[in-house]
User: What shape does this take?
Amino acid sequence: MSNSILLNEELKNIGCELQENIDLAPYTSFRIGGKCKYVVKPNNFTQINEIVSILKKHNIDYYFLGNGSNVLVSDNGYDGAIILLANSLNNFKIDNATIECESGVTLSKLCSVALEHNLSGLEFAFGIPGTVGGAVYMNAGAYGGEMKDVISSCTYLDENNEIKTIYRNEMDLSYRHSIFTDTKCCIISATFELQKDDPKDIKNRMNDYMTRRKTKQPLEYPSGGSTFKRPEGNYASALIEQCGLKGYRVGDAMVSEKHSGFVINVGKATCDDVLNLVDHIKQVVFEQTGYELECEIKTLGF
Ligand SMILES: Cc1cc2nc3c(=O)[nH]c(=O)nc-3n(C[C@H](O)[C@H](O)[C@H](O)COP(=O)(O)OP(=O)(O)OC[C@H]3O[C@@H](n4cnc5c(N)ncnc54)[C@H](O)[C@@H]3O)c2cc1C
Assistant: This one.
């Protein structure tokens, strides 16, 4: 029996469907990337370690994908299996001012649930187009807030397929970094400690942040959000603009005119277009300002 048939059988036995030869571009906010060999979607968190065990047995590399809003996929695709968590691990529990939620829940859903329960603390995350898992992995943040401020614990599957729970001070959370960065652990759920507040005030803050995003960010184009991390003592967008790179283009990848911290896909940009543009930006910014820009976006398939 071929590897794919056997794999399909084994996944079926645990209640999961295997998709093959899948175009990854629609799974990313950049709308860029080639095909991946397999996509598997767990129906619940207990299936994740079974899926990982099966993939390991078949020597198939795997990658956990949330909403794909911080990932740039190679034009050659990914010769492994995507374990797709967005729209799959979607449960949450609310207890007083605490929300425990699974990693596939989107941040916008989590923020809406917090608002419905008069809970404040997550307003900063409203409008970040990711899942809870991706946000914890990246320690996502905006407008002076970050996951680090509100998360109290997190449950994950470690690289030896064991389920562990850790608390905030063990998560090594810093600017766009967590203990999970560049590991193969799977974040299963996270618990957030929030504060009771007037829902009108919470809603006003959420609306204010969303308005600021719509005004300042090129949300009308596919992108991966801010392409570069904020360098110490400056802003990537300010440096890029200062170097005259606003609107600079390689193929269909362009430095946004609206927000120069964003590389956008203005048509049929390839991953190579984006990477060549990123290299050009880094080089020019370094030569003209001495700052070394570092990418915030994760790459897959290299
Ligand atoms: C228009 C736009 C605006 C944005 N604004 C912001 C912003 O204000 N602040 C900010 O911080 N970011 C921002 N981002 C970037 C992005 O939305 C965040 O980093 C988000 O948290 C990523 O979540 P995701 O589910 O899309 O993760 P993905 O892009 O799917 O994955 C990102 C990384 O996390 C890993 N990962 C995802 N889920 C899991 C899991 N359950 N377990 C283990 N690893 C996992 C992936 O393997 C990958 O390495 C923006 C992006 C866009 C497109």
The pocket of flavin-adenine dinucleotide is lined by residues 29, 63-71, 85, 103, 128-131, 133-135, 137-138, 140-142, 180, 186-187, 217, 219, 223-225, 298 (CB under 6 Å). Residues 139 and 204 are 24 Å apart (CA to CA). The chain has eight helices and 19 strands.
